[in-house]
Specification:
The protein has about 375 residues and is an alpha/beta fold. It is built from 10 helices and 18 strands. Strands 1, 12, 13, 14, 15, 16, 17 and 18 form an 8-stranded mixed beta sheet that branches. It has an 8-stranded parallel beta sheet with strand order 4-3-2-11-10-8-6-5. α3 links the parallel β2 and β3. α7 packs across α8 and α8 runs parallel beside α9. The longest helix is centred in the middle third of the chain and has 19 residues. The radius of gyration is 22 Å and the shape is elongated.
């Protein structure tokens, strides 16, 4: 394999891929995850924000060896289900290092989490307060606000969150029900490329914080959710610049002893991953060139239909053509990308997809009998 000049694969990761390819007979598709990139990102996130703790969003990649690696890097964890909790239990992660920021949780999950010792839960409704107070009394709870998600490639503003006046009422109600109304949370959207989303959100939080104090609430937690972007096709603003702005705003507007929680997922594992796939076929349909590969929407690239635009690397030196790239299933929804310029590969050639470590295998199914790709740490 020779590297395409448009590849966003880091040189050291590329060398690891070549070494693996030279010594392995692993059948494609599979996901290679560079441990050094994960370690670098884990050490970077939160470094620019005072008094912050990072909680890896397990949903980004819940593979037990991936979680084991992240555990060894001293990150904490954010979970939403019994399945994710089981992974952390298996690894012996202490409950003090686990939170749950899904605002609407399965009662059985709350019961298992509280029994394990987890005491930090998000919410955004009276029903959730009732549920938590009944199953996990005296827990610390933080209410989710709605904030703008413009500029985020995977918006998250529709399903959860409340406006400030409703948030105050919910926090007061949580206190009446015997819970500890600890603070606030928001999410600017996954793969947020608009730095001002954090500024707008923090302005909204500040106004609510003042009102909460006037109502006698003593909040001490601000959960910033996730949203840090990684590079797919376009350059993005770096984590240090994002955190410099966030830290400056928090320092100026909030109490000095405020606890800050971060929930990175994509930013930890996303650009550490490279899908290794094979070309399974080609076709000419009218004026369109179709390129078929052995991973698709259903078994690893679900985000391709929701706004995430991957880049692609082939080793061919043939004439570049414009392609529609499709997955292996017989479903017409299984189209990954359009208008992609690539040198024409042969059937059986490898096609690499950089920045594919997050929300790929965790979304994948075995629809149509195609297997979920294995993750291999390199």
């Amino acid at each position: 394999m020779k590297k395409n000049i448009h590849s966003s694969i880091p040189p050291l990761t590329w060398q690891k891929i070549l070494n693996f390819h030279a010594t392995s007979e692993e059948q494609t598709p599979y996901l290679l995850l560079d441990k050094d990139v994960v370690s670098k990102k884990a050490g970077l996130i939160g470094g620019g924000i005072n008094n912050s703790r990072c909680f890896y969003a397990v949903k980004a990649h819940p593979g037990i060896e991936v979680v084991r690696l992240i555990d060894s890097l001293a990150l904490n964890f954010e979970i939403a289900s019994e399945g994710e909790l089981h992974i952390l239990k298996t690894l012996g992660v202490s409950p003090e290092r686990i939170i749950s920021s899904n605002p609407v949780k399965n009662p059985h999950f709350i019961e298992e989490a509280f029994s394990y010792g987890i005491t930090y839960f998000a919410f955004d409704s009276t029903e959730e307060v009732d549920k938590i107070s009944r199953i996990a009394p005296s827990s610390n709870v933080y209410v989710r606000l709605t904030v703008p998600n413009e500029g985020s490639e995977w918006p998250l503003s529709k399903k959860f969150g409340v406006e400030p006046d409703r948030a105050i009422d919910l926090l007061l109600y949580a206190g009446e029900m015997g819970l500890n109304p600890a603070g606030l949370t928001f999410h600017v959207g996954s793969q947020c490329t608009n730095i001002y989303n954090w500024s707008t959100a923090l302005d909204k939080v500040k106004a609510l914080w003042i009102k909460a104090g006037e109502k006698g609430l003593s909040l001490n937690l601000l959960n910033l959710g996730g949203g840090y972007p990684i590079r797919y096709r376009r350059d993005i603003i770096g984590i240090p610049a994002i955190e410099e702005m966030i830290n400056d705003l928090i320092t100026k507007q909030f109490p000095e002893d405020l606890m800050i929680h971060l929930e990175p997922g994509r930013a930890v594992v996303g650009d550490a991953g490279v899908f290794v796939t094979s070309v399974t076929g080609k076709a000419k349909r009218g004026d369109e060139n179709w390129l078929y590969i052995d991973v698709g929407v259903f078994n690893g690239l679900m985000e391709s239909i929701g706004g995430i635009k991957y880049s692609y690397v082939v080793g061919s030196r043939a004439e570049p053509k414009r392609w529609i790239i499709a997955g292996p299933s017989c479903d017409s929804l299984d189209v990954i990308d359009r208008d992609i310029i690539l040198p024409e590969p042969a059937t059986g050639d490898h096609l690499l997809i950089p920045s594919s470590g997050a929300y790929t295998v965790s979304y994948a199914s075995e629809f149509n009998g195609f297997r979920i790709p294995k993750t291999i740490l390199i």
